[in-house]
């Protein structure tokens, strides 16, 4: 299963020499580059190039939005979970995802962007969030498969982020990964139970795997050759492992788990390559991926409108919290006077 042991040191020579990025203060820039080269952490109060700040706000806010929108496909099943135990687990999991979104918004705020600006990006449809949450959860087996495969892919991507060069993001990721690990296991266990059930239950698991497998491989982002942000992200120690390498690690870790489960992964080209010591796999439908990222997947519009409605409906809670804080401050001032 997935553990923090996936957090391995970078291969020697993985970081190319620092390019001169901008016309920003060259002394500050040299200090920043030296700290990145020494694998040091950058903290909110430290000087950083504007492009580094912008990249972090982009990635961390997309990540936060993914956690928040990611509550919706599984949230749909809370009222229909097959037992009290499964309902309690699912409520806890969905609540964890909300918590992850909040840590991540807080981490993004340390870079000088307000929560309102971040949310406006999501609600207006300008900001991206993970493609995976734009597909429907048709059966209870989808909830198990999201835990096993979607959270499994998320952990694979996020464990290297625990060593990200930006301190608040890296620290948030440590806790997020621990919780994601529980999410992955609960999904796998739910599927194991279904696979000891009736033929209809087994078929439901296989059908869900068939629908989610390729979408999960696409979650890691475009192939390295088509990934415009990777080179700079790796140089800055934000990304530690490339999209394709993470995807390969995920396939290699998942194939044996599928065997234990007793399901078939829907890829006729999936086979062990002795020379590479990895599994080969088939072609991902990148046109479908980009179509979904651009807002035209099966559930994009529904997800966004549900989020916007939840935010609007929650306005009175924010107003009440602010009024309460103001009242407390006024009282404290009066007492101090
Ligand atoms: N979906 O140059 P690239 C979770 C975009 S939460 C949509 O490779 P980068 C969970 C990418 O943003 C999972 N868009 O970019 C929650 C970029 O567009 P912009 C979320 C994608 O940043 C609840 C463009 O494509 N995890 O699992 O170097 C319940 C080119 O890509 C996707 C994170 O956010 C995608 N799948 O690498 C259960 C982890 N992939 O911004 C589970 C943090 C790529 O230039 N993020 N794009 O307009 C990352 O690690 C990186 O941002 C990515 C992309 C690997 C996702």
Mean pLDDT: 94
The largest β sheet comes out as:
2 strands, antiparallel
CATH architecture: Up-down Bundle
Bound molecules: benzoyl coenzyme A
Categorize the overall geometry. globular
From the helix content, strand content and strand pairing, which structural class follows?
mainly alpha
Sheet-strand content, in percent, reads under 5%
Q: What is the N-to-C order of secondary-structure elements (H for helix, E for strand)?
A: HHHHHHHHHHEEHHH
What's the gyration radius in Å?
A: 22 Å
CATH superfamily: Ferritin, core subunit, four-helix bundle
CATH class: Mainly Alpha
Give the helix proportion (percent range): 55-70%
Distance between the termini: 59 Å
Number of strands: 2
InterPro entries: Aromatic_CoA_ox/epox, Ferritin-like, Ferritin-like_SF, PaaA, PaaA_PaaC
GO molecular function: phenylacetyl-CoA 1,2-epoxidase activity
Pfam family, one: PaaA_PaaC
GO biological process, one term: phenylacetate catabolic process
């Amino acid at each position: 299963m997935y553990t923090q042991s996936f957090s391995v040191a970078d291969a020697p020579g993985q970081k190319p020499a620092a390019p001169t990025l901008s016309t920003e203060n060259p002394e500050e820039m040299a200090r920043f580059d030296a700290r990145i080269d020494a694998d040091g952490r950058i903290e909110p109060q430290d000087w950083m190039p504007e492009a580094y700040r912008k990249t972090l706000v982009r990635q961390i806010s997309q990540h936060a939005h993914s956690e928040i929108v990611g509550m919706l496909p599984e949230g749909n099943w809370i009222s229909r979970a097959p037992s009290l135990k499964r309902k309690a687990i699912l409520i806890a999991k969905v609540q964890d995802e909300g918590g992850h979104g909040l840590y991540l918004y807080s981490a993004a705020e340390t870079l000088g962007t307000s929560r309102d600006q971040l949310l406006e990006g999501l609600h207006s449809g300008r900001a991206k969030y993970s493609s995976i949450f734009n597909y429907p959860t048709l059966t209870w087996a989808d909830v198990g498969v999201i835990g096993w495969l979607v959270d499994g892919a998320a952990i694979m991507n996020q464990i290297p982020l625990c060593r990200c060069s930006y301190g608040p993001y890296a620290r948030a990721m440590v806790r997020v990964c621990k919780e994601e690990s529980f999410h992955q296991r609960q999904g796998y266990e739910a599927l194991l139970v279904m696979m000891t059930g009736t033929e209809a239950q087994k078929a439901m698991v296989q059908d869900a795997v068939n629908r989610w497998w390729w979408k999960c491989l696409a979650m890691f982002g475009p192939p390295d050759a088509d990934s415009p942000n990777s080179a700079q992200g790796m140089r800055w120690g934000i990304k530690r492992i490339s999209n394709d390498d993470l995807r390969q690690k995920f396939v290699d870790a998942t194939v044996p788990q599928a065997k234990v489960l007793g399901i078939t992964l829907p890829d006729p080209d999936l086979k062990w390559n002795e020379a590479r010591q990895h599994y080969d796999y088939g072609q991902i439908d990148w046109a479908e991926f980009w179509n979904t990222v651009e807002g035209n997947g099966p559930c994009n519009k529904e997800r966004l409108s549900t989020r916007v409605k939840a935010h609007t409906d929650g306005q009175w809670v924010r107003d009440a919290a602010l009024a309460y804080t103001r009242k407390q401050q006024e009282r404290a001032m009066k007492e101090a006077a």
